[in-house]
Every structure is written in structure tokens, then in C-alpha cells.
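Review form for a predicted model. The reviewer records the input and the model, then writes brief findings.
Reviewer: anonymous (R2)
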Amino acid sequence: MNYLAQNLEALRKRYPALAENTQENSGGLLTIVPSREGSPSAAHEGRWVHSGYDPRQEAQGWAKAQLREWKASELGVVLGVGLLYHVEALVALKPQGVMLAVVVPNVAELKDAVSTRPMAAWIHRVEWLWGTPAAMAEELAARSEPLRFMTYGPAARLQADAHRDLEAGLRRMVSAKQTGRLHVAVVGPIYGGSLPIAHHTVAALESLGHRVSWLDQSPHRISYETFGVYHEPRHRLTMQSRFADVLSLGVVTHLAEDPPDLVLALAQAPMNLAVLEHLRKKKFLTAMWFVENHRHLTYWQQLAGGYDYWFVIQEGSCFESLKRAGARHVSYLPMAAEPNLHRPIVLTAADQDEYGADVSFVGAGYANRRTVLPRWLSNDWSFKLWGNEWEGAEGFTSVLQRGGDRIDTETCIKVFNATSINLNLHSYAGDGLDPEADFVNPRTFELAACGAFQLVDERSLMPDLFAADELVRFTAVAEVPLLIRAWLDDVPGRRAIAEAARRRVFAQHTYQHRMKELLTTIGVHQPDRIGAIMRGDRNAGALTQRENTPPELAALLRRFPSDQRVELKEVAAQIKTKGADRELAREELLVLMLDSYRVETRDLV
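Model under review:
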């Protein structure tokens, strides 16, 4: 039977251009293989795209799982084509009137599908998006309905790059239209490199207009470090772990007092798996920004399934490892700079004398830095080394500043501004340069934001962040002395490159940029929760204009500015300000009763 002709005829009624393009395409992307049940299945490069046993039954199970979250007001957007068994199952199960669209990044895959099995009975009941990722993102962003993405994994992996580009483009467009304000609880670490990042995250969220609850754990550092008196490592780790568990419960208690829309934790925040699972039961959304090298710090293995969303500074094996460990959503979110802090400054003559040098390095004494940095010392230039954990490092006595004490951010910024050439060598536990150099460290962005010239070791993710004329990179240890000699003599060249890097940071790499992307990513995947709030659907004006809003409630909502987010507790608080002796209307009494019930039944702890 000529399925191709029948299917394309049905498709042509609404999408003639797509039908024509599909007919002319040669296909051949999928390998068609009979399933055990008898229906055609498909594979790609040796991996199944549908079940090799019963693709229809598999599709039914997948479709039923999607219906549990899919709301009638949302446009369902399917990622993954294959032989479209899963789409057919969704069409059959979805309620009447609910809208469904399928993304087709590669028409060759659609050609294989419509050539293999009958679809004429339902293909016209689906919206088809095709073309470049940018064009499809623009089409989706123009829709008025909330979007519910539904990914059929085995087929979606074939077009993973196109889906990633589509989502990135959609996030940019959606972010530009955000009008709503969230309440975000940020949980920081007790100490460590992610603590200042947590501070920058809080500042960025607040500058974007969101309400932030900062759950600062750093005051507990002294107590945490007292357990270091135990000589037996097993005893010390046990006590520190138990103490972190207590802090986890403290986080839950705070959340119970003032429930947020999102709980955002930074790397090494004291949040254990039991607490994360408890928060999920209570319908809290959680996210982790893991600003660490996943190959070196591996505690994520125990927490992967606990967070709803992971944001990481690596791709590839990091994504795969987290998903194998149970993570549901993993997204790339690189580091950034805080321009209000990391900036060019005017130094006094005393500051220039104290912090200035031809060449400087700021950082901790990791193994590779101990072996590499001595090779970059020379009598031809002055060199200053700043940072801690350099105990026992021979050959650095004359250049190590302040005896190897830890320096604060203000000092770092003065060093960056006072130095002609800042060396930026990423940490590595072995000798030399990291053979798996992928993520870009915070120092890269901070130096650039300060307008400081840097020599940085090449990273695989660097080209996506900075152009070749914005940073000077090296790929071998032996290159660096030659680069130092060349750039010390080229003051205008250094200035031009540093200024270009600074412009790039301001345009794309601030913590505001990162928080916009993080929240938009979650909003795209949570259209009825985070997405609705960010669209402004819970602002007083939008709530008043809803068709199903009772007139009595609309009257109460009009007491608020139209762009103010309004929840039940805000309406109740506004009513209470009228005074205890005023007679309340029926609708006001109902609101107060509901709010009282909300408070009494809150059982998060």
C-alpha cells in the first residue's frame, strides 16, 4: 500500500509546503526494522528509536505519562519524530480541543515516517513546525498559549542539537517578554568558592525585580570547622555530615515560614536527599546550579535525582553522567561576572605599587599550578603570586604575596587592574594543562569585566563564550613565556583585546543574563507554574481580565496595581488593613477564611 501518497495528501490540506518538501526529500535517516509484534519499528545507528517488541504499546505508555501534566489551555509541543507512534497515541488520548504541535528539524526523518505506516486518519489534526531552529522558535514565541514541551527521548536524541538551538532561541524571546515576578529562595554553601557566586546570584535576581529569600549558611562555618579537631577522618566526616543534615532541616523550616516559587541551591549547599525528596512531595520546585567540575567533586551522584533541575558549567559527559544518576532536567549554564563589582577602577600610587606587576597570578595552589608556574618566572618581568594553599611550594617564596593568605574580592580586583598580564590557568589535579579542558572558570569572566588583559588556557567551551580577538589563549605550557614577552611590549594591543572582552561580558555574561536564562528554562518546562508567573498571568491586571474571575473577586483585585503579582495572602492582608471594626463583605470573609485555612494546613516541616 502506498502510505506515502495517502499521508502526504492528508498533510497537504494544511501544510502544502511541508508536504512538497517531504515528497522531494530522499529520506533514509531511519532504518526500518520489524518489531516482535509485527508493526514496523525503527533504529538509527544501531540504537532503537521505538520499541523492538511493541512500539504501539510503548507509545501508549509514554502518551499517558504526558497527559498527567498537560493542561487543556497549553499547546503541547512534541520533540522527537521517529515513526510518530507516540504522536498518534497522544492524538487518540488527548481531550477534544487540546492543541498539539510536532517539531520537525529534519524532513528526512518525516519522509521515513510517512513512507512506513498509515497516518492519514490523524495527521491533519496536528500542527507541524519545520524549518530552522530559529524560525521554529520564533513561531512558538509568537503563540499566545503556554507551551508544554513533551520529549520522546529515543527519537529526540537524533536531533538533539536542533532542539537545543530551538530552546535557546525560544528562551531569549520569552525572556524579553517577561513581566511577572517570582519569589526565589537561594540556598548558599557554608563556605567555599561558590559562596561569592551565591551572593552574585542573589544580587542579580533582586536587580531583575524578583523577591529573594537569602538562606545564608556561612554563619555556621565556625561550628562546622570545629569538627576538624577529630583526628580520625571517619569521625570528622560523620559529625560534619550530621551537622549538614541539621542545616538542611533549618532550610525546610525557613521555607515553611515563607514558601517560595523556586528553591535555588548553589554547589555545596547543605541540602540532603531526604530533604529534597520531602520538598518534592510538598510540590516545591528545586534547582541546583552546580558550579563545580563534575569529575572532581562527585557528591552530585547522591543528589542527582533530588533536584528538579540541574544547571551545570560543563556539557557532554556531565549531562550523561547526571542523567544516568537520575537527574531529569540538565542544562548548561556557564559562569559570569558581576559588573557592579568586577570593573575597572582607578588605583592610587600606593595601590599600584602594592598590587601592580608585569605578570600576576591569583588562585589556590593546585597541583598543576605548582609544577607549571615556576616555568613562567623570569628575570625579564616582575611576577606576583596571590592566593592560599601554597604551603611547601618551593621556588615561590620571593613572589608569594602576604605569606599565602587568602585574599578577598576587593584585593583580587585591585590585582587585576594593576597587572599588565594576568595569567589564568585553570586548576587540575595532575601536572600541566587539563587534558579534559572544557568548562570556563569564573576568573575568565571577572578579569574580562575588569578590563584586564589575560592569558588563559584554551577550553573546549571557550569559543561559544568569547571570540578569538577577545581573549589570548594558549594550548601548551611552553607558549606562555613567548606570549608574555610579545604582549608586554604591545600596550595598545593589550588594551584593545581587554576592552573587547569587557564589552562581551556586559553584553552576554553577567549574572543577570544567567538568572534570566535559568528562570526562563524552568518557565518553559513549567508553563503552568513558573512560566505563568513570569508571563504575568498572576498579576492583578491579568487576573481581573480573566473570563472566569467572579465580579466580586475582580473588585478586590482592582485595589492592587495592575502589574503587581497577587496571591491569596496578599488579598487577605489588604482586607485586614481596613480595620477590625469595619463590616466585611461576603467575598472578603470568604478570602479571609481561605487564607486562614491555608495557614493552618501548611505542614511542610
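Findings: The longest strand covers residues 357-362.
Further findings: Residues 538-601 form one domain.
Recommendation: see findings above.
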